[in-house]
Design brief:
InterPro entries: ZIP (IPR003689). This protein is mostly helical. The protein has one domain. The protein is 82% helix and 0% strand. α1 runs antiparallel to α5 and α2 packs across α10. The longest helix is centred in the N-terminal third of the chain and has 33 residues. It is globular.
Length: 277
């Protein structure tokens, strides 16, 4: 199977399946949503960190000369700081007033109550912002997945899985905000699927633009790693600290480890598959 076909297949399947999983999640009764979502977040943390530290970073370091390792390390640091600044700018741009539709209390409630507000008056601005932001985010994910496949098929598969793991909880939130913004379920699903297809565009663009630029691929891999690390550490882990009882903490650790194990197992399977191909 050609690398381009791998890229198209995994970017398309990952994006669409993430949206469908989010849509199915919102069909669950509210008590089950509250039970399942934290486990999904914990699982995503394990998958993202393992994909970064056991997949992307080692492969990036293997692709360069020893004297370039410090530059790659600086790229990881710059990426994490860059994502922090970018998130700050986005939050400031859309939350400069006291009431913030995309990040404030309404957004928090939307994770569990968005389906109760699907008959609002018109499409509110937060909905369009979510669609646009999701499309851009998915495009970048596609570029990073494409860069990973160009480096190594095994790495591309693992990167795709890690992206999908964190996309599902994000798509749940996006879907809920669209419903709260006045979109019908069918419209919200359509626009989420449409935004997810930008992952394919990013992957194909990476294939044609980076295919002959192998010297820059390690830097794309480290940027992908910094993205995974930032999402896990800055966005996901803080939400786990809201509950500190022993039972919940053990469940969080268990699902984080499940994410770690899945990525490590898939690395082994992908490695054998690639060796047999």
């Amino acid at each position: 199977m050609s690398v381009l076909l791998f890229i198209v297949l995994f970017t398309a399947l990952g994006g669409v399946l993430s949206v469908l999983a989010a849509a199915l999640f919102l069909l669950l009764p509210e008590p089950q949503q509250k039970l399942v979502l934290p486990h999904g977040i914990s699982f995503a943390i394990g998958a993202l960190l393992t994909g970064a530290f056991c997949g992307l970073i080692p492969h990036a370091f293997e692709e360069v000369q020893p004297q370039q390792l410090s530059t790659l390390s600086a790229t990881i640091l710059a990426g994490i700081l860059g994502f922090f600044v970018l998130e700050k700018l986005l939050v400031w741009r859309h939350c400069h007033s006291n009431a913030c539709e995309a990040h404030g209390e309404d957004s928090h409630d939307d994770h569990h109550h968005g389906h109760n507000h699907s008959h609002g008056s018109g499409h509110r601005p937060a909905g369009m912002f979510i669609i646009l932001g999701d499309g851009i985010h998915n495009f970048v994910d596609g570029v990073l997945i494409g860069a990973a496949f160009l480096t190594d098929v095994q790495l591309g598969i693992v990167t795709s899985l890690a992206v999908a793991a964190h996309e599902i909880p994000q798509e749940v939130g996006d879907f809920a905000i669209l419903l709260h913004s006045g979109y019908r379920r069918g419209e919200a699903l359509f626009y989420n699927v449409l935004a997810s297809l930008t992952t394919v565009i990013g992957g194909v663009l990476a294939y044609f633009s980076l295919g002959d630029l192998h010297h820059v691929l390690p830097y794309f891999l480290t940027l992908a790693a910094s993205s995974f690390i930032y999402i896990a550490v800055a966005d996901l882990i803080p939400s786990l600290h809201q509950k500190t009882d022993m039972k919940t903490s053990l469940q969080q650790i268990g699902f984080i480890l499940a994410g770690v194990v899945l990525i490590l197992v898939m690395q082994g399977i992908a490695h054998r598959f690639e060796g047999a191909a």
